[in-house]
Amino acid sequence: MPVFIDTQQVTISPQAAIDVPKLVPGWCLDVTSAMTCRVVSQRLKITGVKVTETGGDGYTPGGESVQVQVAATGAEAA
Asked: Is residue 3 in some structural domain?
């Protein structure tokens, strides 16, 4: 039985080797979930991108989070 990743929000690891300019709706990402009962990898199409940034102050640095909305590619959805 095939297993698919189905999610509306994927948070990209800060260690991921991904160029932010390539996070464009319509492009694909290879996504792996290791937080499930078994490791699942799947190529998913980007349908949306959300970047949030928190400003720091004189004592603590700010941070950013990049979330992508993904969906199964046409080949996997068939």
From this structure: no
Q: What is the pLDDT along the chain (78 residues), one digit of tens a residue?
A: 566 666 666 667 777 787 877 888 888 888 777 777 878 888 888 888 888 888 888 888 888 887 888 888 765 544
What pTM was computed for the model?
0.63
How far is the C-alpha of 73 from the C-alpha of 76, rounded, in Å? 5
Which residue, among 46, 42, 35, has the nearest Cα to 68 in the 3D structure? 46
| Structural domain boundaries, residue 39 | 10-72
Residue 26 region by backbone torsions, left for phi larger than 0, else alpha for psi between -120 and 50, else beta: left
Query: Which residues, in sequence order, are CB contacts of 13 under 8 Å at separation 6+?
Result: none
